[in-house]
Amino acid sequence: MSPLFSLEQIDRIIEMAWEDRTPFEAIELQFGLTESGVIALMRREMKPGSFRAWRKRVNSGVSQKHQYKRNEAIQRFKSRMQRTIAQNAVSKRR
Q1: Which pLDDT score, from 0 to 100, does residue 1 have?
Q2: Which candidate, 13, 43, 11, 15, places its Cα nearest to that of 29?
């Protein structure tokens, strides 16, 4: 049984899954969701056509979704939303 996630957490997992440079290992570290769990969540939460497009992209050579497939020059990816996200919660702007 997969853990229950809030809508914000589901949105963040989907966002991370769509980002080419965010590996499945990062999602597992932050949310405890394995690659197969991410795939199941994406299948459940997305339209069928969007899910197929995502799977095709992940399985193609374009994506860097697996840590072991990454170019060694890629050390870290910082999302442009990094400033507003703290511990997977969107911070209030002051």
Answers
A1: 41
A2: 13
> Which residues partner with 78 through β-bridges?
none
pLDDT digits (tens, 9 = 90+) for 38-62: 999 999 999 999 999 999 888 876 5
Bridge partners of 90, per DSSP, are 85
Structure tokens at 49: 């056509």
Global pTM value = 0.65
Q: Identify the pLDDT of residue 63.
A: 56
- Sorted by where each begins, the domain ranges of the chain are 7-69+76-90
Strand (E) or helix (H) holding 90: strand 89-90
Reduced 3-state DSSP string for 24-79: HHHHHHHHCCCHHHHHHHHHHHCCHHHHHHHHHHHHCCCCCCCHHHCCCCCCCCCC
